[in-house]
Amino acid sequence: MSKQVVIFSPGLWRLEREVAALSGLAPVRGGRWRPVPAGATVAGWGHKPTAAHARAVAAKRKLAYLAVEDGWLRSVRPGPDEPPSSLVLDRSGIYYDAHAPSDLETMLETAGELAAADRANAEAALDLLRRQRLSKYNDAPPDDDTLDRELSAGSAPLVLVADQTFGDASISGGLADAGSFARMVAAAVAENPGARIVVKLHPDVTSGRKRGYLDRVALPPGCTVLSRRVNPWALLERVDKVYTVSSQLGFEALMAGRHVECFGMPFYAGWGLTDDRLTCARRTNRVDLAQLVHAACFGYCRYLDAWRRQETDFFTAAEQLDFLRQRYLGNSRPVTGYRITAWKRRTVRAFLDGPRPVGFTRSLDRAIAHVRARNGAVAAWGTTARRIADRVHGAGLELVTVEDGFLRSVGLGASFTPAFSYVFDASGIYYDPARPSDLEHILQSTRFDGPVIERARALIETLIGQGLTKYNPAAAAAALQPPHGRDIVLVPGQVADDEAVRLGGADLYDAEPMDQGGANLALLKRARARHPGAFVIFRPHPDVAAGLRAGHVPERLARQSADHIDDGPSILDTLQLADRVETLTSLAGFEALIRGTPVTVHGQPFYSGWGLTEDLAPPARRRRKLGIEELVAGVLILYPRYLDPVTRRACPVEVAVERLADMRRQGPRLSDRLRHGAGHLVARSRHLFVSRK
Question: Which listed CATH number (2.60.40, 3.30.1490, 2.40.360, 3.40.50) goes with 134-288?
């Protein structure tokens, strides 16, 4: 038998990697003039009309047909643009077509008493779904207090009627038709005198993508149409009874402990759990809710890792979907970016992906007007944000400062390499010690519990083991051979006119002329004075060494205080040799702390003042003592946001670290391609700007 699966549908072909991962078959693109391999399996979207050709080919060639459909946990938003978190692959039918058996129906018809472990899994899944309020689509807030006012009915019971999208295959497949919806509404009214009837429209109808059966008809008195997006669990906990034709909402209503009336024959009907207006002679077994959940969620549905797109388990997929929902809904407030450079806009838009689109403008007046009209916030890069802060705050508006995160990329930011992480700080910014930032608030007040400490500990091990830092160059350096018997002191240079140096550099920022290295030269002199007998290594900042930023210390001046000038590709090659780091505000100090190297701080960086560094200018506000795991948890897990460069989706730090390691192992090819794409965008935007002038 062939190990290939033929896919005709362009939409399903976009998921060929997922189909391969779940089916164990090698996808082959099908076409009218392409031969179908002998013994291959043919795949299509369930029993929908779009799969008619694939099913006809399978029948004519006497080949197996694999029906593929979205699973119960699909995505945050409806629509084909977001990849599914779960799929079903059915070899005998499809769950929503009651005309013939499906794999799921067979599982339920033959189901016996669940083993203890299987029942425990089903009950744990029920608890997770109820607690996290996950559904097929998840773009509505889990909690919705406005529903109480919207559905207020005094002491009258609430009855929910579920509409569906017009012509959906689950209607005819559920042995129903348009008349079923009219009969359902009439029955809901007649069977519940004095109740308030709430008609819930389908999310695709709410979004305007499709039409429904009940959105354009005259409903009986006492019916209320709920036309906005709402979390199904928030709605179900407020109603007493649910009427449905074949909607997944009926399945969720059962899991929420509600009485369900079915006017079609969905997969969850006919097993003794619902009040059924139709019958299916094949369904003779009786199951309890745990058996239904175990068959549907563990035996039938298959799950995909949100970023790696390989098969995973129910619980992992659910937690990942909850993470993506939190990131999406966390961006509910509209944002207008002010003077954010063209090549960064696509990345900023991806980081802020949410219910409201992100806008960009080069006019501060326009930005303020947009934000005021939309009750939003102005977002600007660090130095720009400081320049406009008084005006934005004076207008009573929120200002969000945007900066690169601490695990940035493979390659330099100054050479247009897109970032894996950004910070969006609504209080200040981490490198300005003059005022509190969101990071400082996290470090001052968060109760770091066991799970986040374990994540931080594992993250530290990964960073050390993989040798990852902020920029992660791919090349390796020749090993330095320092002299024996002398302490090795590493002095990392910085961009001399950078805001982190100007704001957090204490008295060193203007201690030396900028054309002689500015604060870099001043720090180097101090380090030598503090360690006269040490072997001092000075490492210029990568952007400075590349000639892209200010802060170059002439070699003749550097040699007066430094024994060695390190120009290797990665600071970690030198950091592992150092007995101590002397720094102003460099991120290298934080990277040294992670690796257990003592750090003396001459300025006031974000990682000083927490009891982990020797502070020569201690920040007055920071009085809490932290362990290294707590510092890492705040700095790398809770404060920044991460974007997976492969899927372009929000991701946790662990995925970003995995991508950084993979890309560095691949060498410069992928990072160069990303950078060149950004450079092309910059060049094009400059051309457009000039041409418009």
Answer: 3.40.50
Reading the block at residue 661, the tokens are: 């390691």
pLDDT (tens digit, 9 = 90+) per residue, 583-639? 999 999 999 999 999 999 999 999 999 999 999 999 999 989 999 999 999 999 999
Q: What does DSSP assign to residue 142?
A: S
Delimit the domains of the chain by residue range. Answer: 4-108, 134-288, 486-642
- Say whether 404 sits in a helix, a strand or coil: strand
**pTM of this prediction?**
0.91
Mean pLDDT of the chain: 91
Distance of CA 13 to the CA centre of its chain: 24
The torsion angles phi and psi of 559, rounded to 5 degrees, stand at -65, -20
Q: How far apart are CA 142 and CA 53, in angstroms?
A: 40
User: Any idea which architecture 486-642 has in CATH?
Assistant: 3-Layer(aba) Sandwich (3.40)
Residue 671 and residue 412: Cα distance in Å, rounded? 10
Is the model's pLDDT at 445 over the cut of 50? yes
**Res 681 pLDDT > 50:** no
H or E segment and range at residue 676: helix 668-692
| Domain 134-288 shares a fold with domain 486-642 | yes
Order of strands across the sheet that contains 301-304: 26-29, 4-7, 41-45, 65-70, 86-90, 301-304, 311-312
Could you give the C-alpha distances from 193 to 185, 223, 589, in angstroms and in order? 13, 12, 71
Question: Which residues make Cβ contacts (< 8 Å) with residue 304, sequence separation at least 6?
Answer: 18, 21, 22, 83, 84, 85, 86, 87, 310, 311, 312, 317
Q: What phi and psi, each to the nearest 5 degrees, are found at residue 359?
A: -110, 160
